[in-house]
Amino acid sequence: MAERLPSLNALRAFEAAARHLNFSRAAEELHVTPTAVSHQIRGLEDYLGLSLFHRTNRGLTLTAAARGCLPRLQEGFTALGEAVGQLQRLRTRRTLTVLAPPSFAAKWLVPRLPHFTERYPDINFRVAASINTIGNGQGPDAVVEALQNAEADIAIGFSTGNYPGCRVKRLLATVVVPLCSPDLLAGEHPLRRPGDLRHHTLIHDDTAYSGRPAWPDWLSAAGVADMDLGRGLHFNHVSLALEAARDGQGVVLSIRALAEDDLAAGRLVIPFDIALPLRQGYFLVGVDNEAERHRVAPLWKWLCSEAA
């Protein structure tokens, strides 16, 4: 069991008087009277059963016992101040939540979170990943309901940006490109022309979304015919398809924005400069009122700057 401590006010009075070696200056610092400081120190000495000051005509000096304990007491007050400051910061710390599709959250948003915490250290960032985000064509009532259900402040929707009556900002335009490990640019059948895909496994990103281009669309745009499109690997989530491509298992056709982190790190490359644009893009969606604009401004501004 912890030993019972003396009055905190008495300890503060002693620490201040010990620094100044003057009761009047300690009283000024603590916004009390010199008599109150003297009374607190007398009570502390009675509690401890020993003297803390030598009182002489020349002023105050510390006893050996006081000199020995003063540094530890000052460390304790410093620690108490830091702890109280931490609690106060927690009280004022905000949490902002973004509702986003799982693929976008995993492949684009999460790698960038350190940038947000560095820029806004006093704001907690929360990601609510869900396939049920904000449907295209939904108005303010549906958007508010979706945000409330996810306990989110803003949403990122994959759509054409049709959210009547809402605050909307295009975050990213999207194109579909072939992606593969840089290892496939060399070897027995290096990827130099689109026709070289005949010698490689096609990876199919079967993530369900409206208007999703597939390999036949891209191959037609590249002028490649007579390929066996029944072969290959199929995944129902972009993360799995990109992982297989990173491992050198074949070439995947997927949304470039979701591979930007892998492209920047050199884990993936785009072997052919042929991209298919999508009608859909990633849009920021929120409630269109002044108070809400102000509240979510840091998150909105940061997402736009990252996308830019």
Keywords:
single chain, 308 residues, alpha/beta, Arc Repressor Mutant, subunit A, D-Maltodextrin-Binding Protein, domain 2, 3 domains, 42% helix
Protein model, in words:
The mean pLDDT is 88. An eight-stranded mixed beta sheet has the order 4-3-5-10-6-9-7-8, with helices on both faces. The chain has a two-stranded antiparallel ribbon with strand order 1-2. The chain is of the alpha/beta class. It folds into three domains: 8-92, Orthogonal Bundle (Arc Repressor Mutant, subunit A), CATH 1.10.10.10; 94-172 and 281-307, 3-Layer(aba) Sandwich (D-Maltodextrin-Binding Protein, domain 2); 173-278, Periplasmic binding protein-like II (D-Maltodextrin-Binding Protein, domain 2), CATH 3.40.190. It has twelve helices and ten strands. Helix 8 links the parallel strand 7 (202-205) and strand 8 (233-235). The protein starts with 7 loop residues before the first helix and ends with a helix. It is elongated and about 105 Å long.
What would you say about this model in short?
The chain is built from twelve helices and ten strands. By secondary structure, it is an alpha/beta fold.
Give the helices and strands as they follow along the chain: HHHEEHEHHEHEEEHEHEHEHH
Percentage of residues in DSSP E strands: 15-25%
Strand order of the largest sheet: 4-3-5-10-6-9-7-8
- Assign an overall shape: elongated
CATH class of the largest domain: Alpha Beta
Mean pLDDT: 88
Percent of residues in helices comes to 40-55%
Distance between the termini: 58 Å
Number of helices: 12
